[in-house]
Amino acid sequence: MRTQWILVMVIVAFLIAAGAAAGEPTLTVKCKKMGAVAFTVEAEGTDLVAVVAYPKPIREYLGGFGKDGVKNYSAGVKIYLDADANPKTGLEGDPQFDPGMNGAEWCLRADEISTSLARGDQGGWIDGPMLEAMVEKGDDYAELPEGVYPAWELEVDGAFKSADWVKPPDSRRMRLRLPMEALELKPGQKVRVTGVVDLCNDAFPYPGTAEATITLK
Questions:
Q1: 71 part of a folded domain
Q2: Cα(56)–Cα(162) distance, integer angstroms
Q3: Is residue 6 part of a domain?
Q4: Is residue 204 part of a domain?
């Protein structure tokens, strides 16, 4: 009996470790308009890696305008990082229009923009929507080190690749990888993370949020 119990405990420990290695969601935002959007924020070596998982393919959220021209849904999200895990320092929150920013020093954004994506066969530009990666420090755009160019990658066949926004793949997950040093973060540091989905609810507050405190290890 003792041997069987030890075997069960080993299997449980293995499953827990496997789940952690696979990147279990750090937090989940339940949205009326979009369903559940999961955020995973963790350290991989000296990098901070943020993954956003949607219930539908990301390309289905691009556009999203109603007949009145108002945007009804969007894949745009924010990830606030409270680097000292203290909500009493950092940015002051806006509970109605931007909940989740309270106490944060950094914000990783996915902003939907319409721009020229590529040259067509006839040489003209192909215009369309894409998700631009933005990094903010405090209430302004961050000055990142030379050679650091943030961009969202889309998961294709189990691997993350540079996004083809002209013909987006049938992908539900995207990733942003940045050096922790660029965000003034260190391995072992505790960080309060807040995931925000801007167009989540039909009434105030429009954004949906979820919060967790993680250790970068």
A1: yes
A2: 19
A3: no
A4: yes
- As a whole number of angstroms, the longest Cα–Cα distance in the chain is 74
Classify residue 17: in a domain, yes or no. Answer: no
3-state secondary structure of 13: helix
Structure tokens at 66: 């109603």
Bond before 205 cis per omega within 30 degrees? yes
CB contact set of 74 (below 8 Å; sequence gap of 6+) = 61, 62, 64, 112, 198, 199
> In this structure, are residues 144 and 135 in contact, taking their beta carbons and an 8 Å threshold?
yes
What are the residues whose beta carbons fall under 8 Å from the beta carbon of 50, sequence distance 6 or more?
39, 40, 41, 79, 108, 175, 176, 177
CATH assignment at residue 117: 2.60.40
CB burial string 143-156: b at 16+ within 10 A, e below? eeeeeeebebbbbb
> Using CB atoms within 10 A of its CB, is residue 191 exposed (0-12), middle (13-18) or buried (19+)?
buried
pLDDT tens across the length of the chain (217 residues): 454 433 333 333 333 333 333 457 789 999 888 889 999 999 999 999 999 999 999 999 998 777 777 777 789 999 999 999 998 899 988 877 788 899 999 999 999 998 888 877 777 888 889 999 999 999 899 999 999 999 999 999 999 999 999 999 999 999 999 999 999 999 999 999 999 998 888 778 788 999 999 999 8
Total domains, the chain: 1
The distance of Cα 78 from the centroid of its chain, to the nearest Å, equals 6
Domain residues for the domain of 200 are 26-215
